[in-house]
Amino acid sequence: MRLIADDRRGFALVLALLALTVLAGIAAAALAAALGQLRAAGSAGRVLAAQNGAAASVAEAIDRTRGRTIGVVGGPAVEMSRETMGGDGVRRVLDLRIAPEFHLLVGEAWWGGGVPTRYARVVWWLDPEARIGGHRAVLEAAAVVIAPGSRVRTDLILRERPGISGCSHLPLLAQAFGHPGPLLSGALPEPPEWGAGSDGPNFDRIRLGRFSAPMLESLADTRLSAEGRLVPACPDCWSGLVFGSGAARLRQRGAGVLVVDGDLTVDAGASWTGLLLVAGDLMLVGGSGVTGLLRAGGTLTVAPGVEVDGAACAAVEALSRATSLARLLPLPGRTSAGPLSPAGGSR
User: Which of 69, 166, 312, 321 is the most buried (most CB within 10 A)?
Assistant: First the structure.
């Protein structure tokens, strides 16, 4: 009987050991599964953080970037910014210039040596050469009236002036103006160069690329007053952009980019150097003068005694100095991008 009892105790011990082994296996499997779930959750969290970081970096670049691009069409992507993210994370923004005024901003974010997550937006970025390269004549309007006794010069359109560098070396300007042919006056261009097209009513009367009349008014650091004087408008804006509206008059000398959402009369003794954009009629009164380029949505009248010195270089200079326009404007929607590397380096 004692032998049978001993056998039973031995068998029970074996069963207990087997049970402990099974339980240990189950616990190990459960632990492994839990660790796997934690790793997966951590990985998913990092992926989500990388996605958010990539998108945020692009949004910040659009909001903060001011100045001119250094990228070239057909060239490599240029790294605009790079910063760390949560210890071993990195996020950066690349600028790929796909056309003179269109760029693909690609935000990348990754952890450690992982594969980067990307988010991309197409933006419009004003380029002075491309903007002025869209002109084809010194005087562009729905109708142009040049009175006898006035003078409109086109022979030095790409040449330097006092304080203004020559611009014949710029390819887009050489293409627009560096050829024999009528440069004196021309018709208004089609949308999206001028007119609303599919861009909405804010672009109907006047526009400067992707800048509508309300945007130009908000960015102008100077306003053309009802008395025809240039007065401060936006202390926080950068310089170079003047905005007027209604039946405006210019009664003094000025320079830069002058935008009028209405009609404009340039009085005797007044002058402008740079770029003139007028939604309605533009009247140059005898004794006034303009050095640059002019565009009006209505009738452009050059009265006797007016001198217009056609100068594409003055218009380019005006846009280059209008620093409030040196910003990025995102286009609607989102695009995806493949692997990109910054100029001259790897990640």
Answer: 312
pTM value? 0.82
Together in a domain, 314 and 189 = yes
Q: Are strands 241-250 and 151-153 parallel, antiparallel or unpaired?
A: unpaired
Q: Is the peptide bond before 192 cis (omega within 30 degrees of 0)?
A: yes
- CB-based contacts of 39, cutoff 8 Å, min separation 6: none
> What pLDDT, on a 0 to 100 scale, did the predictor assign at position 309?
97
Number of folded domains that form the chain: 2
Domain residues for the domain of 111 are 1-126+327-347
Q: What is the pLDDT of residues 139-198, one digit of tens each?
A: 999 999 999 999 999 999 999 999 899 999 999 999 999 877 769 999 999 999 999 998
| Nearest residue to 312 (alpha-carbon basis) of 203, 206, 179 | 179
| Alpha-carbon gap, residue 152 to 184, rounded angstroms | 7
Do 208 and 319 belong to one domain? yes
